[in-house]
Amino acid sequence: MIDWGQRAEALLQELAACSEPGPGVTRLPFTPEHRAALEVLQEAMRRADLTVSVDAAGTLIGRREGPPGSKTFLLGSHQDSVREGGAYDGIMGVVLPLLALEKLRAEGVDLPFAVEILAFADEEGVRFPTALIGSRALAGTFDRDVLDMRDGDGNPLRDAMTTFGLAPDRIGTLARNPDEVIGFLETHIEQGPYLEREGEAIGVVTAICGIERHQIEVTGETGHAGTLPMKGRRDALVGAAAIVSEVDRLGQQTTDLRATVGALTVEPNVVNAVPRAVRLTAEFRSPDDDIRRKAGDGLHSFVQELARQRSLTIEATRTYAQDAQPCSAELSHCLMTAAKATGARGLTLPSGATHDASAMADLCPIAMLFVRCRDGVSHKPEEFAAPADMGAAIVAISHFLMAVGQQPETYGV
Amino acid sequence: MIDWGQRAEALLQELAACSEPGPGVTRLPFTPEHRAALEVLQEAMRRADLTVSVDAAGTLIGRREGPPGSKTFLLGSHQDSVREGGAYDGIMGVVLPLLALEKLRAEGVDLPFAVEILAFADEEGVRFPTALIGSRALAGTFDRDVLDMRDGDGNPLRDAMTTFGLAPDRIGTLARNPDEVIGFLETHIEQGPYLEREGEAIGVVTAICGIERHQIEVTGETGHAGTLPMKGRRDALVGAAAIVSEVDRLGQQTTDLRATVGALTVEPNVVNAVPRAVRLTAEFRSPDDDIRRKAGDGLHSFVQELARQRSLTIEATRTYAQDAQPCSAELSHCLMTAAKATGARGLTLPSGATHDASAMADLCPIAMLFVRCRDGVSHKPEEFAAPADMGAAIVAISHFLMAVGQQPETYGV
Q1: Residue A44 contacts by C-beta under 8 Å, 6 or more apart in sequence?
Q2: Residue A190 and residue A240 in one domain
Q3: In this complex, do A352 and B226 lie within 8 Å of one another by their Cβ atoms?
Q4: Into how many domains does chain B fold?
């Protein structure tokens, strides 16, 4: 009997070796490390009886045909890592469905549709100031202007892709026909502690959270900490502290909201001067856009009142907003059934982070399967998913594909 | 009739020209700018009929003898400025008593004791990482080890002083005999807004505040702002915000306390990461050491409880403590009487900042006279004291010296 979890772990370790030297895994897109990883994956795809190709955006595709005229189901994630990242984020979402197809083939199961395993070149956006190149190409939302963006060494993305043997100017032709795609499943480590706390190996994602970010600038008046009386002080940091507390309060008291002040800087930032100005960020994430917007609006009201009370000038600007991306109810239902068949309780959770699935949602229905990760840690060398948990995910993915195949009325295969 | 305030302003403008190029006044100790200022002051001292000398620590001394065997009253402040500072901080405390002596001489008043006007070389501690060289020398508290300290160009203090024509190794011989000194009066701009808010030109200082500083390190746990659930977060910045609010609350609710968080830095300080660690300072100043210590102890209790409640690790260390220096009740009474004689209401206030008088208190009774400064601003090119206010201070100083002279039982002249 094959231990699919151990197979996944062995393949992921082989892929982790495709890395720049240094702690953990550093595998940036369109590099020799990327090339090495593609070779390892190609071999594994061939073992799973998949036909291998690389598209113009650098996405490695392993395809198994279905019955003539059938639609295609897509599964995958990204091959790239952050600098000094881990061996699971992204790449595990390529390896597990790949092994699920090998398992189905070993069990003699034929699916009533075509399947493709996708290994996108770049999701993290670490090398170039853009991300989601491969998934946007398939969804037809790729912006050609990003080809002129440069990496830290001054190389344009276009040149890096061309040197890698790709045809960046053909990316526009990669858009898939939505009528021919059933859906997209992304498998990913949770990057959070929820499943670990709940003692569960896998969970079904309900939605990818919407995000909004605010830049807040609090301006008061500096002065000597010894000579400026307390009465009448306009201390920018005292104002900012109230904002930090309020953002946390909003997050603690509202269901389905994550609220964080991540960055804060003080001027002049010396021990004996009353702070003149503080710049801080506030970020809200929620699977429910109304909840998220209400929190942002609430913060703006709060800072207006605070500015009045403390005679401060506070400018708050919503600098970024991205709506939530709900997962397909039908696909998620299939995924839930499949998860429960592995003995899982069928927990659901939102994804707080953005994924390739966010971009794929412009093309087709999406679903996401989260795998427990140790201590909720990702983007670090210590990142770890247990082989047994990955084995459970492989079983769930194979059950999922069979469940999708049993719903021809929905997916019209 | 002589306008003494205008005389002060003219002399201060002449001295302000003794500056490095650039905005405001930059006059560091043992530099050509220092030399130029001493020449201007020497000429003014001779006009006031004072005998001029420079001691081994670089203190310019203008002395007028009293009756044979009489003690000496000292008045003065420092000649140096911060970088791009103003024309009044320090140097005004040399010019005003100097003109007060000229005024007394013009009016034919002889004092029953000797007087000296002192222009200390260095109080700000901008060039070398030490300060109060001249006043500590007179008080006998000068530490010879500081002669080895270096400025930003690597020059030791000893060499800078020798090049300036001084004899640093003789500083140990400068200590005055306390039995021969009546007291020390320092006149200084307030560096705060109290007198301006009260509409008063001058005020009498009750004490130089004691200071204590705390370094606080809050350590929690970082994580992705999207994937880490709110429940169970150990957000170091949320903890630090509570500390900032508490320090301000202590200052607002306690009489005679100034409480400030001046510096705060966040790690990793990015928009989408829960803060892992925050380092911040807390400073308390009070003319009453018990009040100050109670606030420091209260903060330590607060952070212990906070650490427990939020599962944070918080280390709070008292890194610096300096006791308050009360002004002499007898001298302050004379100063109050003198101030009222100019039409002042006789307001009292503590000094939140340290001054040469802090060091002189180790030698003799001290008193301080504060002069209103515009917008409470100091250490900036915009620093300004009005000629009329300086004129009032000159009159008050001359009355003060006469009042001291009328108390032979106290000062044994």
Answers
A1: A11, A95, A98
A2: no
A3: yes
A4: 2
Contact A258, B228 (CB under 8 A): yes
Q: What is the pLDDT of residues A12-58, one digit of tens each?
A: 999 999 999 999 999 999 999 999 999 999 999 999 999 999 999 99
**In this complex, which of A209, A229, A237 lies closest to B264 when CB atoms are compared?**
A237
Q: Residue B140, by phi and psi: left (phi above 0), alpha (psi -120 to 50) or beta?
A: left
Query: Of B301, B322, B343, which residue sits at a domain end?
Result: B322
d(Cα B118, Cα B136) in Å, to the nearest integer? 13
| Helix H or strand E encompassing B206 | strand B202-208
Q: Domain range holding B255? A: 210-322
Spatial distance between the Cα atoms of B87 and B286, rounded to a whole number of angstroms: 28
Q: Count other C-beta atoms under 10 Å from residue A303's C-beta.
A: 23
Clarify whether residues B201 and B222 are in a common domain: no
Give the gyration radius of chain B's Cα atoms: 24
**In A259-328, which residue ranges form alpha helices assigned H by DSSP?**
289-310
**Pair of tokens at residue A344:** 């899982």
* Residues B234 and B157 grouped into a single domain: no
Structure tokens at B36: 């130029």
Q: How many whole angstroms separate alpha carbon A30 and alpha carbon A154? A: 14
CATH number, domain containing residue A167? 3.40.630.10
Q: Are A29 and A408 in contact (CB under 8 A)?
A: no
Tell me whether strands B348-351 and B202-208 are parallel, antiparallel or unpaired.
parallel
B347 and B386 fall within a common domain: yes
Are both B14 and B128 inside the same structural domain? yes
User: Which of B277, B292, B322 represents a domain boundary (last residue)?
Assistant: B322
The CA-based angle B119-B125-B129, given to 5 degrees, is: 140
Nearest to A44 by CA among A111, A117, A115: A117
CATH of the domain at B226: 3.30.70.360
CA B159-B163-B169 angle, 5° bins: 55
Same domain, B59 and B168: yes
Q: Are residues A68 and A178 in the same domain?
A: yes
Judged by CB atoms closer than 8 Å, whether chains meet at A228 and B376 is answered as: yes
For tokens 């600038």, the residue is A217
Full pLDDT tens readout for chain B, 413 residues: 899 999 999 999 999 999 999 999 999 999 999 999 999 999 999 999 999 999 999 999 999 999 999 999 999 999 999 999 999 999 999 999 999 999 999 999 999 999 999 999 999 988 998 889 999 999 999 999 999 999 989 999 999 999 999 999 999 999 999 999 999 999 999 999 999 999 999 999 999 999 999 999 999 999 889 989 999 999 999 999 999 999 999 999 988 999 999 999 999 999 989 999 999 999 999 999 999 999 999 999 999 999 999 999 999 999 989 899 999 999 999 999 999 999 999 999 999 999 999 999 999 999 999 999 999 999 999 999 999 999 999 999 999 999 999 987 666 65
Q: Cβ contacts (< 8 Å) between A353 and chain B: which residues?
A: 224, 226-227
Round to whole Å and give the CA distance between A342 and B234.
34
Selection from B139, B411, B224, B178 nearest residue A380 by Cα: B224
Of B211, B226, B252, the CB nearest to A353: B226
According to DSSP, residue A391 is labeled H
End-to-end Cα, chain A, rounded Å: 32
Which backbone phi and psi does A244 adopt, to 5 degrees? -60, -45
B227/A271 CB distance under 8 A = no
ipTM beyond 0.90? no
pTM: 0.86
Rounded CA gap, B40 and B45, in Å? 9
Same domain? A228 vs A313: yes
B260 contacts on A by Cβ (under 8 Å): 225, 235, 272, 274
DSSP 8-state code for residue B87: S
Whether residue A353 and residue B257 make contact (CB cut-off 8 A), yes or no, is no
Residue found under tokens 């320092």? B186
